[in-house]
Amino acid sequence: MKNHEHWPFLHSFVKVAEAGSFTLAAERLEISKSHLSKQISQLEQNLGTQLLVRTTRKMKLTDEGEQLYLKCTRLFGELEEAVQSAANPDSQLAGHLRVVCPDIIGEQYVARAATEISKLYPQLQVDVQVTMRTIDLIAEGYDIVVRFGDLDDSSLRARQVFALPHVVCASPAYFSEHGVPDSIDQLEAHNCLKSAFEPCVPWHFAVDGKQIEFLPKGSWTSNSGPALVNAALQGVGICRLPEIYLRTHINAGTLVPVLEEFRSNPLPVWMVYPNSRYTPAKVRMFIDYFSDNIERLIRVCPV
After folding, report:
1. Pairing of β 156-164 and β 267-274
2. What is the pTM of this model?
């Protein structure tokens, strides 16, 4: 069977997965249940893999079926948007847009951008998820994922939307008790507040024009930037975090920056999206809007 001949069967498969039953899917497709069952069986035979586990009471997707369903829903969504765009080039953006990003980037800046976009495009349903875990963009069905640092997946597209300068700091009380380090080596004698977020695990510095890494040691670890800030404010130790977490506290004098002369290059922040011939207009719009407005968002959304 040629690839294009799979399309009707794939459409039926998606409807079965969405409905959770052959009976309901057949009603929605306005075909007989037996015909629908034959379509799915033929698709499984053509692909050489089982997509559904059928019992007398329920139906569920296999792992292969789940992967195919996620990819098909994305593809059918892009096709629908392409058709709508061609038929109505001046129409507003619509459909669903799923974005996932780390804590403060999502809670403050991406969420604020999404709110503004929702007002501009009320027909567009935006879903912003915040998590510190590593996301499989394709397998989990997201349109955009925000990532930090170097990218290692060449199968995806990415656009750098801004960069995060990092600052090393601690509370005045901590420095009063333990002294102020004036070199990177002296950090060895201090309790460093460690990030479990992979791009921030090693501390990066610039020395004589070269970028170096320092592996911090200490009694306190978290994957949450705000939690690390709070520990620093309580005098637990020294932290190294993006400046956006720290600016308000530094301006208030509750945190004191050190080792400023050894600041490394800012950490790049990327919006990553699937590598396909047709990038949905909603994805392009969201990335463009965020990139164009991030400096303003940082000003109006102090941490």
Report:
1. antiparallel
2. 0.68
